[in-house]
# Entry
Amino acid sequence: MSKQTSHDSDVSFIQALAELLRENDLTELQVKRDYGENDSLNVRVSRQTQTIVQAAVAAPVAAPVAAAPAVAAATEVSADPASHPGAVTSPMVGTVYMAAEPGAAPFVAVGTTVSEGDTLLIIEAMKTMNHIPAPRAGTVKRILVEDGGAVEFGAPLVIIE
# Structure
């Protein structure tokens, strides 16, 4: 088939993927359809959630007196941490561990000075423990993940300045 051949069902297929993403509260789906030699459709549908913003916006409802500061804080929080120049992003999907073993001291905390190559955290993917190194020297300003929490590819992990 030529590259110009259109598959009418592709649009409805992509719409169905988007609906599936929304209905099941997923953040990402990736599918590849092979139609034949040199003819395929590779689709990645994703959405970004702003869980932190929703929690910050909910605060004024519980405490109307502090409404103005809470709204200002929500605006500051809504800035995408992944776009920060010091953001270290996840190279894979997996489970985050902040320490080498349960009960051990975490690799880093806010305010920790790190050198390039120091372990920031571990991401377990497919029963493999992957040490995530600091890409540059600096000070850990924010930790954006929780110990034992799930992380997706490209998600911001920490901010180093």
In short: Confidence is low (pLDDT under 50) at residues 1-5, 50-78. Residues 38 and 116 are 43 Å apart (CA to CA). The radius of gyration is 20 Å. Strands lie at 28-36, 39-46, 87-89, 94-97, 113-114, 119-125, 128-133, 138-143, 150-151, 156-160.
